[in-house]
Write a structure and sequence with these properties.
By secondary structure, the protein is an alpha/beta fold. A hairpin with a 2-residue loop joins strand 7 and strand 8 (185-186). It is elongated. The structure holds fe (ii) ion (2 copies). One fe (ii) ion (FE2) is lined by residues 353, 357, 396-397, 607.
């Protein structure tokens, strides 16, 4: 039964004489609280005047949980009941005064009942609040785990969060590794992957142990159930596992309570084990000296088992996802490099170009990412975006696989077959001239006019013509050499252009002419002179268009690949690698900073630079880095290239970086 406390004068409240010793009388809230010793439920019958005197104090006391210990009733005259309830809405009930013994008895029993119910409700509420708290904490952890894609960081996070949620001082994490199967038995291993300890320094090195029941982690992995050990030095008798004390002996630590939880993936297979060590009363305490372990370390609870268990299964799924993602990335990576080697098989002359452009562009992106202010200040790249840039750069010229080989590999302004046709033609023309000379001599001699002076004039005229023809051939050969700008071929070209040429609009037309017709002159067709008139490189307009089509091809190819979300811009970045800020690029003639992605603008600079300095292009001489930078600077001045990006490129001199050289070396060996 509940104890009775009268707040006010007992004689005025109770009917008749109160039983001696059974009633405590207090006169204010302070005295009331002091007399609540917490041993049992109490019924307080209060004089409304006393409640009035300290109304806010009573309200606060009840709001803070006073009702767990005491039931507060106001003693009123029956006629005042409603008014008292209005004034003191916080009281639990009213009793008519004077309170008779029978009434008191009933109220005491009810008070006991009410306090019991209030306590049960409070406990339930607390349980619900704790569960809600745990669930939201688990949820938060789940979100953090699924956001982490770096496997090593993820494993650290799993162990850290498992320790935090259970209050464990230390912990380790093991992963199951499946060994080869022989005789239907698999030699599985447990890889000791990670260790954390808040009290002593851990020297950590990964190693593997056999997955069997002799280790506590192995036992948990094989049984698939959590293992809760109160003292690692006092294992239950008959336990197949043991706990190594080597670490404790070397570090002066003391492993006591342990909770070992298997990590199960979505198929319920155990993929690892989280081992939690020494649950502390207070998570912040450092277990040093070792005697602190005695007072501070307690066994893990069933709630810990539950929490660590559900965290471990979330962790397993996050780990599997991260691994899957890594596998997909590896797959992309291998695919991209295989594609690069396919381009280079096709176009051996530019071998290594894609790799170099990728290394230069990523190197430039890193420098740009570090720029703090100015136009490039806001430009930042995540690791995924860096990888995206690398893939786009590696594949930027992939479309060259669709360009005809003779155009792709064209070294001189004339294709090899055309040049040999011209050589034959000129040999024939030379021979024809010689025949003409001989015929003229014979005619003269037969006509009896073959005196020495006449014959010498024929010879001289013929020799003059021969020289003329040879000069034309020489001019063709000189002009045929590709070059960026060269005075010699320029002169040769001028000489060719002054000659009459055969009209006709294509090589096919020229091929149809017989040698006799060619010998009558002019010796060159308009098409040939046009081909030789190319001022930069070796390609005619038509051939240039064919080569330029590689950009569209690259885009078509890349757009068909189902890139994962973080690489979705690869096709667009590569698509714009020949565009120029002033709209003079191709194929879409994009213009302006908004029209061309910054990644592509960086790639354009790297691409041009590498094409200029590359040693391996047959149709042009490699230029020194300073000369290449000069050409790029000209393009910047003409508004074609991004000035801010070029300034970083110029300053960074990535090609001088030993790391750059090492990577180029490595890619050559690949
Ligand atoms: Fe290209
Ligand atoms: Fe390129």
């Amino acid at each position: 039964m509940a104890r009775l406390l009268i707040l006010g004068n007992a004689r005025e409240i109770l009917a008749g004489e109160p039983p001696v010793g059974a009633v405590d009388e207090v006169h204010d809230l302070g005295a009331l609280l002091a007399s609540l010793d917490g041993t049992g439920p109490v019924l307080v019958i209060a004089d409304p005047e006393r409640l009035q005197a300290e109304q806010s104090g009573f309200e606060a006391w009840l709001a803070a949980g006073g009702g767990m210990q005491a039931v507060l009733m106001a003693a009123t005259d029956p006629a005042d009941g409603d008014q008292v309830l209005r004034r003191f809405p916080f009281v639990h009930d009213l009793v008519p005064r004077p309170v008779t013994p029978g009434h008191l008895q009933l109220k005491l029993e009810r008070a006991l009942e009410s306090i019991r119910s209030a306590r049960v409700i409070r406990q339930l509420e607390q349980k619900v609040a704790r569960k809600t708290g745990e669930l939201s904490e688990l949820n938060k952890i789940g979100v953090a785990l699924s956001a982490e894609r770096d496997i090593d960081k993820l494993l650290k996070l799993i162990l850290q969060k498992s320790r935090e949620i259970t209050g464990a001082d230390a912990g380790s994490l093991y992963l199951v590794e499946h060994g080869p199967e022989h005789d239907a038995v698999r030699d599985d291993l447990l890889r000791f992957k990670l260790a954390q300890n808040d009290s002593v320094a851990v020297f950590f090195e990964e190693f593997t142990i056999r997955l069997d029941e002799t280790s506590i982690a192995g036992y948990a992995a094989l049984s698939g159930r959590p293992l809760n050990v109160a003292d690692a030095y006092d294992l239950p008798s008959g336990s197949p596992y043991r706990v190594s004390r080597t670490f404790d002996e070397q570090s002066g630590y003391r492993t006591r309570s342990m909770l070992v939880v298997p990590m199960r993936d979505h198929e319920n297979a155990v993929i690892g084990v989280v081992q939690l060590i020494n649950k502390k009363r207070h998570f912040g305490t450092v277990l040093k000296p070792v005697s602190v372990v005695e007072e501070e370390v307690v066994p893990f609870t069933s709630v810990d088992e539950e929490l660590a268990g559900s965290l471990a299964s979330q962790a397993a799924v996050a780990f599997e996802n991260a691994k899957l993602l890594r596998d997909i990335r590896n797959l992309f990576d291998r695919f991209v490099h295989a594609a690069v080697s396919a381009i280079e098989q096709r176009d051996v002359t530019t071998r290594g170009h894609s790799e170099r452009v990728a290394i230069l562009t990523v190197g430039l992106a890193r420098r740009v990412d570090a720029v703090a202010g100015g136009a490039l200040g806001p430009v930042r790249f995540t690791p995924d975006e860096m990888r995206e840039i690398e893939y786009a750069a590696l594949l930027h010229d992939f479309g060259k696989v669709g360009v005809r080989e003779k155009v792709l590999l064209k070294e001189k302004k004339l294709l090899g077959s055309h040049l040999s046709a011209i050589r034959h033609r000129f040999a024939y023309i030379g021979q024809s001239l010689e025949n003409e000379r001989l015929r003229a001599r014979i005619e003269r001699i037969e006509a009896g006019r073959g005196d020495a002076a006449e014959l010498a004039a024929i010879d001289a005229a013929s020799a003059g013509k021969q020289r003329e023809v040879e000069a034309v051939l020489q001019a063709v050969l000189t002009a045929n050499e590709p070059s960026v700008v060269e005075a010699e071929s320029e002169r040769a070209l001028r000489a060719l252009r002054d000659l009459p040429t055969r009209p006709g609009d294509g090589w096919e037309h020229a091929d149809q002419l017989s040698l006799e017709e060619w010998a009558r002159g002019p010796y060159l067709s308009m098409g040939e002179v046009d081909a030789l008139s190319v001022r930069r490189g070796s390609l005619t307009d038509d051939e240039r268009l064919q080569i330029q089509s590689h950009v569209e091809e690259t885009y078509r190819f890349l757009a068909r690949i189902p890139w994962t979300g973080e690489f979705r811009n690869v096709p667009d970045i590569a698509y714009a690698h020949h565009e120029k800020l002033d709209g003079s690029g191709y194929p879409r003639r994009l213009s302006g900073m908004d029209g061309i992605p910054v990644q592509s603008r960086m790639m354009t600079i790297s691409d041009i630079y590498d094409a200029l300095v590359a040693q391996d292009r047959p149709y042009k001489r490699a230029v020194a880095p300073e000369v290449a930078l000069g050409y790029l600077a000209d393009d910047v001045k003409r508004g074609k290239l991004d000035a801010a990006l070029f300034a970083v490129f110029h300053e960074a001199r990535i090609w001088d970086d030993p790391e750059f050289k090492k990577r180029i070396e490595r890619s050559r060996r690949r």
